[in-house]
Structures are given as structure tokens and as C-alpha cells.
Design a protein that fits this description.
This protein is an alpha+beta fold. The protein is built from 14 helices and 20 strands.
């Protein structure tokens, strides 16, 4: 194979009359007298192969006679135009590369059933070529984040996916058993945070990981139990540093990839021109409902749960505040917006805001009404961190399945002295949704989890 379809079409003036080798899947075949037209599809698109049957040698004619839609074919020929002016490859030789044993979906209707598209992604890619463009955008965004962090002098590391003590977020974990460790109960990580912070304590200063994380929660259009993020930790920085980093990262990706800072998403224009908006959400929520959630007791949280009809089974301050944000503020964040300065009780791993002990130095970046990044000025006081872990442990014993267990090993590491540090988790899935104009997270995950088919396969 010497050229892709798009390459030939884009450079026809230079390639006309030259011999090329193309390869791909036969998506359409037409016979007109002694001429056969085959549309060959590769990753870049389709190009017509024009075959004069009487010009083929015996082997190529045998291949042509036994070819059908769906076969992978190699074609050697001359770049030309057909009588109708379509850029084509005039075939001199045809090779059967692989034979399809199944019939492709109808060429006019394609593959449109959503569940079938996700379950049979190979067919989805064959029949809906725009799907591949979504995953090319995803790949480019992940590379762009990596390049940004590499340019800051960070090193990429790997930390355990199987953990005996999970932490770094509030989430219910997946459980498994480690047989070679005396059937020890293990957990798929919900975050990389506590391991990466140990590296900061050890002197690494700037570290990141491209991480698959797992949270045993419901799936919806913006959540998947298995998801991809990049977590990054930088010593001697704070969350203000990362606001500037995220503005530049999102700006440069939009401009370099699409040539504009204004991206269409679901019928609206998202403008990535810095500076991004800032929403101080405790103040904004107080303006809307007249309640200051900076300091809530369990009793006050229960009353708000009832008065606001939040429907929470365990209306602790954390979940009440989180649900109030979703109810009143989340829908206001189509444009890139930093949601700032969370109530301190929601942030057990975060430094208290300088000048306001009821709030924490934390932001979430929202784009397209979705959270795409979460950042802290990290808590570095081991004594206060122990108190926050103890509070979480009490909540866990009261039935909060999302509260992580006490992590004594992490506290031991902190007691050696953790430098001032900023940390951030950057979603890969959700920014890809915005940049590829998708409304469901399953559209940007190649193989999303699916329910099992019935025994008969129907």
C-alpha cells in the first residue's frame, strides 16, 4: 500500500498518471458492460477503483470474479478520472487480502441501531466512518494533555490499579480477590491521587499518570463506571497555577485542531478564548436559594433535603451541597467556567482557603455543562489530614458507601513532610464529547460496557 484514498484525492494533480497501490474494504460494486467499479474504503475515506475486465491477468480476473462487498482488496493501478470526472484508480492488478464470511449491513441504511453500534464497534467503524474521527479527536486530545505536562518537566508514571486501600475520591469501588495474597480483598482504584502524592513527598516534584479508574456507580450520558483521566501533581504550586494551565491547554487544543476557538456543541457555540468565567458557587447558591452552605450540620442538611425535595437517602452535608449544585448551577456552565472555592467539608484532601476557613482551595472546570477537570491546592498538614480521614471513617461506618477507608500508610508518608502542591484530574472522555459534538459518553468510548445478550443472541 503506497497511498490512502484521501491522499490521492487531495493530490490528484501531482499523482495523475502515476501508479499507486491502495488497500481497503470493498463497500460497493457496480458492473457496466465490461467495466467493474469498486468503492475501496480505508481509514481516510473511499476511492473508486475502475476495472476493465479484459485488461486483467488470469489471477486478478479470478479474484474479481470471486469478490463480494466486505472483502479486503489490494489494487495496483494508475491514478485517473472516470468519464464522469470521478477520481479513480484504474486497476492493473487485484489481490484478495481477506474474505468476508458475513454480509455487511445494508449500504443505504447503514448501522443505525445505537446498542448494535456500541456492541459491534467493528461494524460501526465500517459503516459509519465519521465515528473514527471522534476517536482521532480523543487520541489528539490525550496527546495534547501529555505534551502540555511534559513541557512542564513532568514525568509519566504508573501506579497500582489493584489497591488494598482505595481513596482519593468519594465513590463506591469494584471489589476483587487476590488469590496469591491469601485471598486478600482488593479494590480497583477510584483515583491515583494518594499514590502520586507519595511520589511528590519522595521528591519527584512533577508527576502524572494516564489512568483508567473505576467507580461502581450508575451509568448515564456523562458517567461510565470505567473512565479515563490524567492526574497530575506539581510541587510548589497551587490551584491558581492550574487555572492558567487549563485555559492555555484548552485554548491551544481548539486552535491547533480546529483552527478556531469557537466550537459548536449541540447547537451552541462554546468559546475557548481566555480568561474563562469564574463562578464562586457558595455565593451563587446563596443568592438563588438564600442558604449559605459553607457550614452545615447534619440536622440542617436533613432539613434542606426535605425543603428542596432532594430525595437523598443519606442527607449529609456533602451530598446535600453536591445535589444543590446540580439542581441550580450545573446547567449554567455551557461556556468554560471555573467553579471555585468549595465548602471545606466537601474536600477532605484539600487545603483550606487562605482567609476563609469554611472554604477550600478547589476548582472544577465545566464545559458544555459537564465537569472536565477537578483541581486542589493539596492538603499537606498530616495532623489535619488525619482528622479528615477520621471524619470520613465515621461517615463510612454510618452507611456512606462512597466514603473511602482510613489510609494509615498515606498518613505515614505525609508525616515525612509534603511540600506545597497542586493536583488536578483531567477528564479525557468528556472534553472529547465537546470537541466531537457528542451527547453520550458511550460515543467516545470504543467498547462501552453492555448488558449481556440473551442466550439465543437476539
Amino acid at each position: 500500500m503506497t497511498h490512502h484514498a484521501k491522499e490521492i484525492k487531495d493530490n490528484f494533480g501531482e499523482l495523475e498518471g502515476r501508479e499507486v497501490n491502495i488497500a481497503g474494504r470493498a463497500m460497493q460494486m457496480r458492473q457496466m458492460g465490461g467495466i467493474t467499479f469498486i468503492d475501496i474504503q480505508d481509514k481516510s475515506g473511499k476511492i473508486q477503483s475502475l476495472i476493465r475486465n479484459n485488461e486483467l491477468d488470469e489471477r486478478s480476473l479470478l479474484v474479481l470474479t470471486n469478490s463480494s462487498i466486505g472483502d479486503n482488496l489490494g489494487v495496483r493501478g494508475i491514478v485517473m478520472k472516470s468519464k464522469r470526472g470521478e477520481i479513480s484508480v484504474g486497476a492493473r492488478e487485484i489481490t484478495m487480502l481477506s474474505k468476508t464470511l458475513r454480509t455487511l449491513p445494508n449500504k443505504w441504511q447503514g448501522l443505525t441501531d445505537t446498542e448494535a453500534r456500541y456492541r459491534y464497534r467493528h461494524l460501526d467503524l465500517m459503516m459509519n466512518q465519521e465515528v473514527l474521527k471522534t476517536f482521532e479527536i480523543r487520541s489528539k486530545f490525550m496527546r495534547h494533555v501529555r505534551d502540555t505536562l511534559d513541557s512542564r518537566g513532568a514525568i509519566e508514571v504508573e501506579t497500582p490499579i489493584l489497591q488494598d486501600v482505595y481513596g482519593g475520591a468519594k465513590a463506591k469501588p469494584f471489589k476483587t480477590t487476590y488469590h496469591t495474597l491469601d485471598d486478600k480483598q482488593m479494590f480497583l482504584r477510584i483515583s491515583d491521587e494518594l499514590y502520586l502524592k507519595r511520589l511528590i513527598i519522595g521528591g519527584a516534584e512533577r508527576v502524572y499518570e494516564v489512568s483508567k479508574d473505576f467507580r461502581n456507580e450508575d451509568a448515564d450520558t456523562t458517567h461510565n463506571p470505567e473512565f479515563t483521566q490524567i492526574e497530575y501533581y506539581e510541587a510548589y504550586s497551587d490551584y491558581e497555577t492550574f487555572m492558567g494551565m487549563m485555559e492555555e491547554m484548552m485554548r491551544s487544543f481548539a486552535l491547533n485542531t480546529f483552527g478556531t476557538l469557537k466550537i459548536e456543541y449541540q447547537g451552541e457555540i462554546v468559546d475557548f478564548t481566555p480568561p474563562f468565567a469564574r463562578m464562586y458557587w457558595v455565593d451563587e447558591l446563596r443568592r438563588i436559594i438564600g442558604v449559605d452552605i459553607s457550614s452545615l450540620s447534619d440536622e440542617e442538611a436533613a432539613k434542606i433535603n426535605d425543603s428542596e425535595q432532594l430525595g437523598l437517602k443519606h442527607p449529609d452535608p456533602y451530598h446535600v451541597a453536591d445535589t444543590l449544585f446540580d439542581k441550580y448551577l450545573k446547567g449554567k456552565t455551557m461556556q468554560p467556567t471555573f467553579v471555585l472555592d468549595f465548602p471545606a467539608y466537601m474536600c477532605p484532601l484539600t487545603k483550606i482557603k487562605r482567609g476563609n476557613p469554611l472554604r477550600a482551595e478547589r476548582f472544577e472546570l465545566y464545559v458544555g455543562r459537564m465537569e472536565v477537570a477537578n483541581s486542589y491546592s493539596e492538603l499537606t498538614d498530616p495532623v489535619y489530614q488525619r482528622k479528615m480521614f477520621e471524619d470520613q471513617e465515621r461517615e463510612r461506618k454510618k452507611g456512606d458507601e462512597e466514603a473511602p477507608p482510613f489510609d494509615e500508610e498515606f498518613l505515614d508518608a505525609m508525616e515525612y513532610g509534603m511540600p506545597p502542591t497542586a493536583g488536578i484530574g483531567i477528564s479525557i472522555d468528556r472534553p472529547t464529547m465537546v470537541f466531537s459534538n457528542q451527547t453520550s459518553i458511550k460515543e467516545v468510548i470504543l467498547f462501552p460496557p453492555m448488558k449481556s445478550l440473551p442466550p439465543d443472541g437476539s
